């Protein structure tokens, strides 16, 4: 049997860790690893057109599967392109292993062609970032990197010079059983007992949920029923907690709607469940706050806590719920449910009157029709900016759909690359990229990746020829919009020229049939929808606070633009409120 080189050993270990594919762009220092992948049937090399796409795609794959994903860049500029997507993956707690190929080991530190220092560059967007400078470090260094990415939830970066990659792997190297899944973390009995006492003593309890409630929907609902608590959520918690939720009071934050703000500020006890909600201006300063999170470094960094609970949300609630006394007083819950329904009713007509005739097309209408036509288990990837607004308001979670975006890092151009990673997992699952024209054009080259691999991603392009969210930011700051207008081509024509399905929609009556035809198409498709650039999510009133930035008043009222099916849910929940 031929002796393995370092590259072959590297690829074998990734395959043992469950990696199915590596995204990247080939290059000289990376060639030994790519060749090892070529000869290994367990891993596919996915050629993208930009390394930033590679990192975004790997991050999306890891978020959907919960398993390790991988990407790679060649030395210097090649691996530098990974950094933005790796920041997003790291902040999303997506387990990603990034290979930063390096210049020849003998030239490091001598100003060689394309020299950078990846062990410094990637330090802030990784849990582990080390260089293989000697074959004897393998396989222990790679195994350690994998366990950091999986165990801590985030990115590990391994740098490796091309000449090291080609050398023979060490004799009698130590390979151990790899950690490929994370454990659940149960809080200690003292913390559970303290939390139990606080819940029992409070008359009005509110739950505010983030992405850490994934897999804990049933436990959250059971606890909410036991203590009669309204349940609000952050944007990343929406897909996990809003559906089948008779206690739903909406979302807080910059895109907030409904009664979530009131519920979090008018309670006696606010329990933050699995959320690293960044906007502390929306959190109360005069109520007791408990935070439950599996990442201890996140406890208390947004608000002053009366109790910090280190633990998994599901396990914590499983321990807590049987111990707390059942509450019978629904007054606070029912009042918040009514406020929520009234808030939604008050603006739901803002963009529902004559939308079928409005030209340019209201983007809210596009999102609403998209929500109706998409599959029940569709994966939506959402560009940062106004697409975030339409997704937050109009996409209906049901426990099977997924919504992936750059919700923590806030990068442009994420939707198309993330759709690539999502579609490679399952070609038969519907994947829809909700792209803005600014984000799509930034990494438009990787639309060719869809064509090259015949990935059936459907790109729904919200084309308002502007950077809409930036215009809104300027407006609330009292500034005139400047530098936000895009002169766009016919994107559908570009899609057709690339060999994909492309259709341009300029009239509302064309929209539904265009989306249906695109969804029926077997390969990649782009629906270029010309939308109204003036349809900004501006509150009906702009207060002095808002002019200095989105402050509390932004969440006290529902932002203009409707809220899709959420008003139906609110009406349904309100029917359950006992009448006097």
Outline the structure in words.
There is one protein chain. This protein has about 575 residues and is an alpha/beta fold. It contains 25 helices and 19 strands. A seven-stranded mixed beta sheet has the order 10-9-8-7-11-12-13. Strands 2-1-3-4-6-5 form a six-stranded parallel beta sheet, sandwiched between helices. Strand 5, helix 7 and strand 6 (about 155-160) form a beta-alpha-beta unit. Helix 10 runs parallel beside helix 13 (about 315-320), helix 14 packs antiparallel against helix 25 (about 565-575) and helix 15 runs parallel beside helix 22. The longest helix is centred in the middle third of the chain and has 17 residues, at about 330-345. It is globular and about 75 Å long. Residues about 535-560 have low confidence and may be disordered.
Low-confidence stretches: 537-561
Strand order of the largest sheet: 10-9-8-7-11-12-13
Radius of gyration: 25 Å
Q: Characterize the main sheet.
A: 7 strands, mixed
Shape: globular
> Between the first and last Cα atoms, what is the distance in angstroms?
82 Å
Count of DSSP helices? 25
Q: Structural class, from helix and strand content? A: alpha/beta
Beta strand %: 15-25%
Report mean pLDDT, rounded to a whole number. 89
- Helix % is 25-40%
Give the tally of β-strands.
19
């Amino acid at each position: 049997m031929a002796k393995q080189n370092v590259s072959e050993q590297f690829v074998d270990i990734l395959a043992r860790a469950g990696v199915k594919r590596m995204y990247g762009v080939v290059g000289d220092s990376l060639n030994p690893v790519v060749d090892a992948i070529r000869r290994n049937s367990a891993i596919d090399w996915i050629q993208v057109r930009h390394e930033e796409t590679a990192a975004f795609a790997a991050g999306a794959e890891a978020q959907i599967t919960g398993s390790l994903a991988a990407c790679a860049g060649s030395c210097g500029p090649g691996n530098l392109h990974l950094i933005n997507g790796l920041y997003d993956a790291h902040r999303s707690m997506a387990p990603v292993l990034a290979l930063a190929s390096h210049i020849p080991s003998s030239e490091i530190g001598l100003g060689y062609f394309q020299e950078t220092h990846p062990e410094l560059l990637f330090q802030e967007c990784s849990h582990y970032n080390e260089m293989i400078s000697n074959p004897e470090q393998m396989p222990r260094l790679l195994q350690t990197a994998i366990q950091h990415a999986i165990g801590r939830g985030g990115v590990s970066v391994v740098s490796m010079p091309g000449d090291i990659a080609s050398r023979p792997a060490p004799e009698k190297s130590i390979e151990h059983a790899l950690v490929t899944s994370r454990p659940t973390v149960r809080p200690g009995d003292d913390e559970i007992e303290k939390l139990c006492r606080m819940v029992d003593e409070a008359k009005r309890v509110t739950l505010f949920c983030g992405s850490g409630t994934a897999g804990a929907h049933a436990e959250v609902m059971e606890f909410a029923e036991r203590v009669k608590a309204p349940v609000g959520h952050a944007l990343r918690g929406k897909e996990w907690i809003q559906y089948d939720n008779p206690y739903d009071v909406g979302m807080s934050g910059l895109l907030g709607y409904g009664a979530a703000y009131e519920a979090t500020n008018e309670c006696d006890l606010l329990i933050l469940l699995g959320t690293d909600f960044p906007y502390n201006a929306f959190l109360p300063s005069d109520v007791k706050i408990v935070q439950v999170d599996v990442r201890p470094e996140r406890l208390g960094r947004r608000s002053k806590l009366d109790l910090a609970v280190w633990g998994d949300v599901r396990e914590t609630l499983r321990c807590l719920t049987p111990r707390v006394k059942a509450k019978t007083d629904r007054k606070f819950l029912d009042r918040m449910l009514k406020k929520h329904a009234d808030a939604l009713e008050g603006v739901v007509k803002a963009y529902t009157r004559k939308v079928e005739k409005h030209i340019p097309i209201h983007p809210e209408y596009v999102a609403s029709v998209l929500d109706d036509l998409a599959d029940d288990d569709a994966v939506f990837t959402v560009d940062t900016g106004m697409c975030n607004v339409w997704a937050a308001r109009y996409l209906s979670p049901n426990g099977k759909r997924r919504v992936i975006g750059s919700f923590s890092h806030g990068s442009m151009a994420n939707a198309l690359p993330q759709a690539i990673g999502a579609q490679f997992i399952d070609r038969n699952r519907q994947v829809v990229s909700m792209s803005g024209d600014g984000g799509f054009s930034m990494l438009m080259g990787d639309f060719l990746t869809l064509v090259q691999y015949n990935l059936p991603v459907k790109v729904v392009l919200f084309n308002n020829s502007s950077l809409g969210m930036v215009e809104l930011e300027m407006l609330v700051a009292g500034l005139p919009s400047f530098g936000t207008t895009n002169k766009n081509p016919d994107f559908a024509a570009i899609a057709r020229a690339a060999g994909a399905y492309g259709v341009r929609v300029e009239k509302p009556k064309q929209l539904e049939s265009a989306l249906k035809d695109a969804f029926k198409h077997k390969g990649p498709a782009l629906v270029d929808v010309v939308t109204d650039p003036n349809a900004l999510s501006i509150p009906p009133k702009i207060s002095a606070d808002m002019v200095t930035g989105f402050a509390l008043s932004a969440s006290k009222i529902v932002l203009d633009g409707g809220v899709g099916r959420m008003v139906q849910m609110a009406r349904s929940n309100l029917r359950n409120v006992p009448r006097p």
